[in-house]
Specification:
single chain, about 325 residues, alpha+beta, Phosphoribosyl-aminoimidazole Synthetase, Chain A, domain 2, globular
């Protein structure tokens, strides 16, 4: 199988078909594009869970691991409460590396009022790069849970921030030497600084309060993959305009160096929001200092397409993320 997220067809055949619903407390089950599950704890409140691994050598890997998991929780309309962190280090890692990772995890948790509730650490000669797997727990009123699959035909789709944020920051940090052959230092440094934008917790709170029908943070597979997933989860078609998808020039230039499609590049820090009145939501986000744009809408049927002037591209389920090209 290809490196990266397992394909949608394999997930359906070999993962989801093996999972059976047997507990009435479990309110939302696993599915394409659904990053969280919810468990009822009383008459009006539920706990929400999400888990995601991060692999890498970047010094900011601890912060990234917290952000992508808190993002999943926030994208369901829930408040992140705590995390469990499992850290697997390669033999060449040092104690100072582990100490830095934990300091970064604690800093990111402190910023968002999240508790570190437990976890596991070990060194393994099987791994070549550090793996951090975090399970995040949140809480939400049952009637305020927002699934990925909440779109209805006619809903507008708002995208926050810019395409390829996370991937751009990773490439700038890990491949600066190669980038410097053709790009100026200032551009690379700016791109590396994009990791400061990786949380979607603020925009998720605004969107939930504004009555969002669906929310989905943009991770592996980039904007194109996220558009497919939010449509597939909702059982709707999608039409989006490529020219309206926000993107930074630094991302465009860095992606050109490695032959990467920036719209298929991992993009934690950006999210898709379904709502009835997209421009009103964009204005509310702007008041909180969060850039956003209406990029499309949900439609009847199952066609998920990107238009670019007179050109039309049919979206497909996300394959291996474009980021992995930099490691080949």
């Amino acid at each position: 199988m290809d490196i990266g997220k397992v394909s949608e067809n394999i997930l359906k055949r070999s993962v989801f078909k093996q999972i059976h619903h047997r507990r009435p407390e479990v309110l939302f089950r696993p599915g394409i594009g659904e990053d969280c599950c919810a468990v009822a704890v009383n008459n009006d409140e539920a706990l929400v869970f999400s888990t995601d691994p991060v692999t890498g050598t970047d010094k900011g890997i601890g912060r990234l691991a917290v952000h992508i998991n808190a993002n999943d929780i926030a994208s369901s309309g829930a408040e992140p409460v705590g995390i469990l962190a499992s850290i697997i280090l390669p033999p060449e890692a040092s104690e100072s590396d582990l100490k830095q990772i934990m300091a970064d995890i604690e800093d990111a948790c402190s910023e968002q009022g999240i508790e570190i509730m437990g976890g596991h650490t070990e060194v393994s000669d099987i791994v070549k790069r550090t793996i951090i797997n975090i399970t995040c727990v949140g809480k939400v009123k049952k009637d305020r849970f927002i699934p990925t699959g909440g779109l209805s035909a006619g809903d507008e789709i708002v995208m926050t921030k810019w395409a390829g944020l996370e991937g751009t920051s990773i490439i700038a940090a890990e491949k600066a030497g190669i980038l410097r052959r053709t790009l100026p230092d200032e551009l690379i440094e700016t791109a590396a600084s994009y990791k400061k934008y990786l949380s979607v917790v603020p925009e998720a709170a605004v969107a939930a309060e504004a009555g969002a029908t669906a929310m989905h943070d943009i991770t592996e597979g980039g904007v194109f993959g996220a558009l497919w997933e939010i449509g597939a989860a909702s059982g709707t078609g999608i039409i989006a305009d490529l020219r309206k998808i926000p993107i930074k020039q630094e991302t465009v230039e860095i992606c050109e160096v490695f032959g990467i499609n920036p719209y298929m590049l991992v993009s934690s820090g950006s999210m898709l929001i379904g709502c009835l009145h997209g421009n009103e939501l964009v204005e509310k986000l702007a008041k909180k200092g969060i850039p956003a744009a209406v990029i499309g809408r949900a439609t009847e049927g199952n066609d998920r397409i990107i238009i670019n002037g007179d050109e039309t591209r049919y979206l497909e389920p996300a394959l291996s993320d474009e980021l992995y090209k930099i490691y080949k």
